[in-house]
Amino acid sequence: MSDEYLFCNYSDCKAVITKFIWITRCSHVFCEEHGNSFFANNPNKIKCPVCNEPICRNKDIIKNNINPHDLMLSCVRPDKALDYVITATKLWSYQMKQKHKVNIQMLSEKYEKIASNSMSKLKTENNEMKKFIKEIEGEIKKINAELSYTKKKLWKYKLAYNNICMANQGGQHTHSSNNSLFQKFSADSIDDDIDDILQYRNLSHFDNLLSPKFN
How far apart are the C-alpha atoms of 129 and 118, rounded to whole Å? Predict the structure, then answer.
């Protein structure tokens, strides 16, 4: 909207008025289209579409050319012309204030929309980040569990290896000694792989499991 033009005060219009204008006593103006719709065929007693002030169709509303010929005012008495100037100044001053108010409202709505969209986007990104962090934490927990299991498994293998080495170094252990050794392995809850090794019940089976350097 240019500052040197009035605009239609109807909320759904706001069109710049460049030729014909409808003006009410309450200082509201309307474009030709909406002025004709509101005032042209309405009864004598009506209300302003903007402020709902009761107005008389014959006295409080006028349709005029916004750019009248300069000769139209040439025959008007100076004091009357001055009254016209004062009235016009009041009208324009009020309309400029209304335009400023409308512009502020439009800017406020625009930035509120931008802020709302930004907050919505930020909320979405935060939710995605929380979901990602949760997934990472789940993976870390899973890895830690696997590491813990691996450590326990390695410890069992080491224990079984050491016990086998000790059994091999003992040379001529009796059958009862072997049974005691296997009972100790079972008490330590060695996993399935180790249990397969410990199912043998004599030294010859241990010898088969050992590497060549122990034979």
Answer: 16
Distance CA 155, CA 69 (A): 106
Of 1, 48, 7, 56, the C-alpha closest to 26 is 48
For 116, the 3-state DSSP assignment is helix
- The reported pLDDT for the residue numbered 170 is 67
What pLDDT, on a 0 to 100 scale, did the predictor assign at position 138? 92
Quote the distance between the C-alpha of residue 158 and its chain's center.
Answer: 55
Contacts (Cβ under 8 Å, ≥6 apart) of 23: 29, 61, 62, 63, 64, 91
189: left (phi over 0), alpha (psi -120 to 50) or beta: left
CA nearest to 8, candidates 137, 187, 20 = 20
Q: What is the pLDDT of residue 22?
A: 92
Q: Counting every residue, how long is the chain? A: 215
pLDDT value at position 11? 82
Q: What is the CA radius of gyration of the chain?
A: 49
Residue segments in the chain with a per-residue pLDDT below the cut of 70: 1-4, 170-215
pTM over 0.70: no
Instruction: Name residues whose C-beta falls within 8 Å of residue 1's C-beta, 6 or more positions apart in sequence.
Output: 7, 14, 16, 99, 103
SS3 category, 196 = helix
